[in-house]
């Protein structure tokens, strides 16, 4: 159904794409600090084992109005999508906590449930923020944290705009 709707005039559905290379770079930063017994920089965000880096490529940047999140979880669990304020080609290996946007989008599915739930007010505000940021970015990076048994392979997510 979502695929058919996205094909309609005036809708733009942009998928979240796993950025394996950036995720790997951020993991190496974490390992490097551990091996050298160094502390992270003040305020540095280190990638946790349950976090992955995803990106959204804006094929269109202007006059986008946030419509909805399309998040599908193939199993029970929770995913937290946090946007970053990094511009263009970021070196996320030195990501600072202050570069993480508020609010985050939190989506979950209870065992046996068909529907994915979310905190709608935060998800709405987050979506509107992404639409604003799209005007100055061709690409936006997100940290996705998978918890309560959810695995990255069980997620399909996109953001839908009225274009």
From TrEMBL:
> Would you indicate the residue range of the signal peptide?
none
Alphabetical list of Pfam families matching this protein: Olfactory_mark
**Alphabetical list of InterPro entries matching this protein:** Olfactory_marker, Olfactory_marker_sf
Coiled-coil spans in chain:
none
Q: Per the UniProt entry, what are the Gene Ontology biological process annotations, in alphabetical order?
A: sensory perception of smell; signal transduction
Q: What is this protein called?
A: OMP protein
């Amino acid at each position: 159904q979502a695929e058919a709707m996205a094909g309609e005039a005036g809708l733009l559905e942009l998928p979240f794409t796993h950025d394996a290379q950036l995720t790997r770079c951020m993991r190496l930063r974490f390992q490097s600090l551990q091996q050298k017994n160094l502390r992270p920089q003040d305020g540095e965000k280190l990638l946790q084992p349950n976090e992955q880096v995803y990106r959204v490529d804006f094929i269109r940047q202007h006059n986008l109005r946030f419509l909805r999140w399309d998040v599908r979880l193939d199993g029970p669990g929770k995913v937290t999508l946090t946007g970053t304020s990094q511009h263009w080609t970021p070196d996320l290996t030195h990501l600072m906590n202050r570069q993480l946007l508020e609010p985050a989008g939190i989506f979950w599915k209870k065992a046996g449930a068909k529907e994915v739930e979310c905190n709608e007010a935060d998800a709405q505000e987050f979506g509107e923020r992404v639409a604003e940021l799209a005007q100055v970015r061709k690409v936006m990076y997100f940290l996705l944290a998978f918890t309560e048994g959810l695995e990255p392979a069980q997620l399909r997510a996109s953001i839908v705009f009225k274009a």
